[in-house]
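Exam review. A common question shows you a sequence with its C-alpha cells and asks you to describe the fold in words. Practice with the pair below. Do the first one on your own.
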Amino acid sequence: MTDERLSLWNVHNVNIRTNNHLEGWHNRLNRKAGKKHNGFYELLELLISEQGVMDTLIQQVLSGNVTAGDLRRVNRVYAQKQRQVAQYTGEYNNGTRTLEQFLAALMYITPEPILMPPSK
C-alpha cells in the first residue's frame, strides 16, 4: 500500500466511527419498524417519522439546549473501558508508557462475555 493511501485506512486517534453510528441507527430503525419486512409505504412513514425526530434533535443542539454528547446513551461499563483505553493511549503518546507497557495494559481490558441462549 502506498503512503498516500495509508491515511485512508489508518483509524488511529479517529473519534467518529461511522460504522458504529450507522449500525446503531439501523438497529433503532429496525426496532421502531417492529417487524422484519415492511411494505414501501410503511418504510416511507418510518423514515418520515425519523426525519422529524432528527430535525427536533438538530434544533435542540443548535439552540444550545443540549449538546451532541447529551444525546448519546452509553453503556456504563463500555464508557469505563473507553476511558481506560484513552488514558493508556495518552500515556503512550506522551512517553510515560512504553509500547510493551501500553499493550500489556490493553490486554487486560476484556470484552463482556457473550451469553448464548440455551440450545433447544
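Now try the second one, then compare your answer with the model answer below.
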Amino acid sequence: MRFVTLVLACLAGTASADVIIVPDDYAKIKEAINAATAGDEIHVRAGTYYENEISPNGKKISIIGELSNDGDLLTTIDGYAAGSVIICEDEETPATIFSNLIIANGKGSWHSGHSFGGGLLNMNDSHATFTNCLFTSNEAEYGAGIICLSGSPDFSDCEIIGNSAIIEGGGLYVASGQPVLSGCWICDNTPEQIVGNYQESGLNCIQNECKDSDDDGVPDCLDPCPHWTGTCVDGISIMEVAPGESIQAAIDASPPGGLVQLEEGIYEEGNLTTNGKAITIDGVPPTMEKGIAYEICYGYYVGSMIEPPPGEVAFLIQDGEGEDTVLQELVLIGDGSQVEASSPTFKSVVFTAYGIGDNFESAIHCHGEGSPVFEDCIFYTYMGNIWDEGIKNSDGVTTRIESCTFWSGDAFFYRGISNSNCSVTINNCDINGMGTAIYNYGSNSTINNCDLSSNNNTGAVNYYGAPVFIGCNLSGNNDPNVQWGTGVWNEGTKASFVNCDLSSNTGGYNGYGALNFSSEVTFLGCRMKNNGTSDYYQVEDLVSGAIINTNSTSYVIATEISGNEAYLCPTASIDSDADSLAIISYSKICSNDLNPINGTYTEAAGNCITTNCSDLVDDADADGVPDCMDQCPGIPDVDTDEDGIADCHDQCPDAPDLDMDRDGVADCVDVCPGFDDTLDSDGDGTPDGCETCEGDLDGSGSVGIADLLIVIDLWGTPGGDCDGDGDTDIEDLLVLIGNWDSCN
C-alpha cells in the first residue's frame, strides 16, 4: 500500500549500544524512549502497541517501525481513543525522527479547553521529522490527524487518511507554524483535508476521496498510469501485455503519451479501439521477407500478431485520433480494419488480408476527413476474393503512404491501393503481383516514384478525377492467360504521367501502354516501349499498342514510343478513333508496327516520327537528342526536374510542367488554376474562371442585363463562358441567374 519504497535497516536480533528493540529490550515504546540517549534508534517490531501521548522528550532519536518485504507497514501505535498518539512539545529538532509507523485511533488530548491532534499534537516550536507514516482513524475537535499549534514538523511520503474532526481540520490543522509536506497523500478526512498554511516541498496528492484505481498503492493524482499496474518510466506509462492478456484493457488504462508494449505471440482479440488517445501500441519487430509471409499467415509468425475472432476486425480507429496515435511493429491478420475521420500513424506494420467471400473487404479502410499515415508497412493477400484491397481510401480522406510494399499470393483482381473520391499521396512504394496496383475513382491522388510493375493485369486504373503519376514504373504488367495487360487504363479522367515507364505490358488478348476512354491524358517525359499481345487466344481481333484513344485527347510531350506491336490495330504507337486527338511535341515515335500514328493528331513542336529509330542520327549539338526533337538547338538539353522539358524553355524548371486545367499554362505559373487562363471575356486581365463576381462579363461590378445579352450573343462560343468549361451554354445562363445583382 506504500507508494514510495524506502531503503530501511533490518531489525537486529539483539540490541547494540545505540539500537533499542521493542518489545525485546523494553515492552513499551515510552519505556524505550526514556532509556534512549541522543543518536539512538528505537526499532519497533511488527505488531500493535496500545499507547498514547508518546513524547520523545526533545531527544534526537529515531523511532522506526518494521516493513514487510513488499514495503507494507507492519507496526501500529494504537491510541485506543484515550489521548493523542504522539505529542511533540519539547522543541524537538529534525533529528527527532518517526518512521514506518501506523498512527491510529488517537483521540485529541485536551489543551486550552479543546481536544487537539488525535494522531499528532505538535506545539512549543517543535520540528520533528515524520517519514513513511500513516495517520488514520484519529479523532479530535481540531486537527484529527495532525494539529500544529506552532513549529514546522516535516512530513515526507506520509499518508493522512480517514481522520475525523468535530470542528475543523480532519487531516491537518495548522494554527501557527508551517509544516512541510513532501510526497504525501491526504484524503478521505472530514470535514476538510487541510486547514491553514503549509509548505509544499514535493509532489503531494490532496483529494476529498482517496482514489487508487489500479490498487498499486499510488494515488491516481500521482500515478502516471492510474488504471494499470504496469511499469511507469520517466513519466511514460508502459503497459506490458503478454499473449492471453487484454490489449484493450491496456489501451483503456494508458494515459495520453503512454506505450502499450506487446510481447511476441498471438493475440486473439479484435475490434480494438484507441479511444482518441495519443498513445503508441508497439510490438516485437516483425523481421519478414516476401518469401515467408505466406507461412506467417498460417501461424509461422515472427513478432506480435493480432488475429481477431470471426466477425471482428483488428482495429477500429474512429475517435479523431491524430498522428501521435501510433501503431508499430505489429502483424495484423484479417480484413476490415477501419480508420474513420482520424489520422493515426502506422509504422512497420504487416497487414495480411485473405478472402472472405464477396464482401469487397480490404486489409484496412480509411475514410472520412482524416489524414492517416502508413510508413514502411507490408500488405499481403493470399487465396483472396478477387476484389480485395490492401488499403482502401474513400470519402475525402487524405492518406499518405510512404515506402510500403504490396504483393499478392493468389488474387487476380486484387488491388494494392484503392482511392475513391479522395486525394491520397503515395511515395516510394512497391506494388507488385496484384491484379491492379492502384485503382483511382474520382481521385486526385499523387503517386511519386512507385514501382507498379509486374502485376497480373494493370499498373493503374483511373476512373474520373485527375491523378498524377511522377517517376513511376508501370511496366511488365501482363498475364498471357487473361485478356489484357495494360500499363494504365484511363476512363473519364484527366490523368497525368511524368517521367514514367509504361513498357512491356502484354496480354493474351490485348496489350497496351495506355488505354484511354473519354479522357484527357498527359504523358510528359515518358517511355512507352515494347507493348503488345502474346497471341494466347489465337483470335483475329487482337489489338495492342502504346496509346489507344477512344473519344479522348492525349498530350504526348517529350515521350519515346518505340518497339510496340500492333497486331490488328492500325498502328502500334498512337491509335485514335474519329472522336479523339493526339497532341504531340518533342517526342520520339519510331520502330513501331505498321503506321507511325493512326487518327487525328497535331504536332505542337518538333518531333521525330519515323519507321526506324536507327534513322535518327542527326545531332548537330552532340547532346544525344536528335535534331528533329531537340528542344534547345545548339546547347545541351539539360532537364533538371526530369520531366522531359529541357530547362531552356521549362516554365517550371524545378518541378514537373503539369498543366492540370489543360490551358497551356503550367500549374506553377497558372494565374487561375482549374480554369482556362486564356478566357477573359471582359478584358480586365483576370481570367473568367477567377472573376470575383462570377457572371460579370462586362466588368461593371454587377451581374445584369448587359451580361445576359453577352451570353446570348456569344452562345456556343468560348466568349461568354462563366463556369470555366470553355463554352457558352445553359450552365452559364444559370450562373448569371444565380448571381443576379450579387456584386452590387
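Model answer, second protein: Residues 705-713 form the longest helix (9 residues). The domain at 227-434 is CATH 2.160.20 (Pectate Lyase C-like). Full marks require stating both points clearly.
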